[in-house]
Amino acid sequence: MPHKSNKPEKLFDLIHSLSGQEKRYIKTNIGVGNKQEMLFSAIAKLNELEKYDEKKINKKIDTKNLSTLRTDLYNSILKHLRAYHSEETKKIRVYELLAEIEILQEKNLHKQVKERIEKAKNIAKEYHYDLLMLKLLLLEKTHLRLEINKQNLTALSKNHEDTDFYIEKATQSFRLIRLYDEMFLLMRNKKYNGNENLKVDQKADELIHKNLKHEEPSTSLEGKMAYHNTWIIYYKHFAEDTRDFMVHSKTLIEFFNEHPKLIKEFPQRYIYLVNNYLNGMAILKDYSEFPQKIADLENLFKRMKEKENVQIKIFETVSYLKILWRLGEQDYPKALTILPAVEEGLKKYGEKISLPYRMGFSQSISLAYLHSQKYEKALDYLNEKLDRLQVDNPKNKSLPDIQLFCRVIRLVAYFELHLKKGRYYDLCISEARSIGRASNQSTEKMRHYVKLVTNAIAKAIGHPPDKRKKVFEKLYQDLKDIKGYTNGKEQVLIWLKRKIF
Known about the structure:
mainly alpha
């Protein structure tokens, strides 16, 4: 059934979500010089920040029924997008084949129906689309019953076996996905509501030991992803065992590498797994696998030119991992050489970069400047980015750990500039107090660590060098005593080493 697009913003948003390749393909297929093409071109030329003006558009197109034209164009774009992605995305190709099967059945072209069913089944099997396989098996049953002969009876018996097999796979997958959802919600509850109440940790332990430990790893992609990702969340956020969560990440990466077609079909999942794994390596301070895995992602970028959303995700991930790698190895000159390309990409993709990565770049880029002792650049960068992201707005509770640490970096920059120029005392004290208040919205662990840092800097700024050193020596030991991973702690320890050793 065609989509109705009565609101002009829907068409505007759809057109501005298209990649360059998609726009060229659609313009070619809707034709040149007709009113659909004229409307498409008029909207595409508008800047994304411009207000959609229906009257101006109407004057350019000169049509009596712009609403109908808008709806027709909206449906036409979706139709051509399906065609454009059908060869690149096998799931869409299976849906196309399903539609063709229904049409051919209506025309009693049974031989062609059989061919389409076999083709779709092969794709669904290869790419782990189990639910689509069940739909195809159901259509196959109907087709086989139309002509009763020995060959069809044998095929029908095989169909029943396959149906039972895929029902069992799908049932297990849904069971594992539900367990994953429960663990994910527990993680969110712990992250945003603090860790004072041990009930969340206890529920996570219970979920693992009563359910997942007795669950066999799934053979389906969905079940496999849910199974290992549930363990990853548990080891990462509850048991805080980096090595064990990395075992599950590596298992999934190896599965994708053994089935390279799945990487092209599900690139976002693969990118996420590699990013997750290398973050674990960074926590362990082991950067040996960074070069190869980053190169793998860069090669994937070259193969995904037709998918802008995937290219953006690879840019985000590779840029972040490169800076993380150089910061972790304390190779700050190399870190600085990466920044121009990162800044260019951030400018190119703009708001298409996800908020978590925009905030993460604010943190990592400012750290590169801070550790290179370019304090004014770190401060200028942070002030610009923090204002834009409204991090200082207490109502903005998104990604609180990154928000807090960005402000800790700014506090350190104020402190260093005060030592260098002697006019940042008031800013240091007010920022330390403000961060202390803001940390009350975070978890107990993060709050404790941030307050240790802010209190020590506020205390040290008024002391001579020998007493400052003692304050920082105590802070260094207090931070070392905090067990497990806390965002930014290692970077503060690196900075403190320069102050006391």
